[in-house]
Amino acid sequence: MSSNFPELPIAVIGAGPVGLAAAAHLTERGLPFVVLEAGEGPAAAVRQWGHVRLFSPWRFNIDPAAARLLTDAGWVRPDDDKLPTGAQLAADYLQPLADLPAIKPHIRYGARVQAVTRLGLDRVRSLGREQTPYLVRLADGEDILAQAIVDASGTWGTPNVLGASGIPAHGETTAATFVEAALPDVLGRDRDRFAGKHALVVGAGHSAANTLLALAELAEQAPGTAVTWAIRATSPARTYGGESADALPARGALGSRLRAHVENGTITLITGFSVQSVVVDGDQVKVSDGEQSVTVDRIVSATGFRPDHTITGELRLDLDPILGSTRALAPLIDPNEHSCGTVPPHGIDELTHPEPGYFAIGVKSYGRAPTFLLATGYEQARSVVAALAGDWDAARDVQLDLPETGVCNSNPVDGDDTIAAGGGCCGAPAPAAVAEPAGRGLATGIAGGLLTAPLNLITLGDKPTEGQTGSCC
Which of 322, 344, 301 is nearest to 163 (CA)? Predict the structure, then answer.
């Protein structure tokens, strides 16, 4: 992909794992680049969930180009079979990568991107568009010109709302001070906000499960701590997963531990609960679905994330109307059909928009699909940078080595950080006797996608019927 402005940098938005992987590949290719990071250091979002241990072992969390650059600088690679926490991922890999002399001078921290457009052209103007450089405007008003954009800004800053209809529930905005984003550090940094309080966790994914297990542990330590869990489905089976029969022991252990806490009463489970209103009631907040309600001190919104495309509002993007990814990528990552480990290899061709030279990579490229893995993002970065360098053979030679039992993240077996004890995303192949059906569903040990069960349409005032599972939450 030849550039009309080879003297201008390629602007990489975000210094997280995938943005820094792009920087590593750009370095190896000898292409000019600048990394624009809103935080005050690399991996700002990762550090916020640093207390969470990944299912993915180190060997799948390190980009190959980054590893080559780090190894040349004397870096000691972590044990490939260990399962890092987010904090370890940041400290032992991403920080050293960002500090490499070949990369560090090209990273700008505290540089929040406000908008990306074409210099002097809005979205409507076509004449001369491909011969016009990109203009990146920062929040402080500075303008930066670029030959191409690699958007690895992620989705951490745009969580989904509590409201079941995809918009804030009645009163949700007013009650914002009572709501925690996904994955609070319940046993560490955020302990004081939960100890001795009644917390409601909304959501049915691994983020919800992690938080619920931490709250259950806190309830044993701090008298007066109460935990309620609300899900839209009429059964928690999808969150429990395969338990002892799960192909991944860590994932099964997660479900088994969660089930035990529900059955012994440590966690109160409310099913068929779709948040409609959130009302402040003195020092507490009342959450209701129109029929059921619960009054609590804190709410943890573990309802997933969505991409923010507002910064690229003046670019010509062809977004899938359901997921918000590119249209070409959507069927490959559809959570109704795929789990994290069954997403096919994809690269430049699936990530290309009508706007030449703009590419969203990493978790943002997946839109609302919760099927992203770091290894997938690294291959995206490699393919896109190869195309930017004009090496189309390499760009289109996309490969991804993931077993079909991949999962996203969650805490493994208590007290162990190894694949042997904790399984893990992309871990050792499961024994044939407990092999998980391949290619389907959320990473829960259950075959089938989000809509495996029939989706029953309801009218206002009706309650969801058994089997309705048309959402991650």
Answer: 301
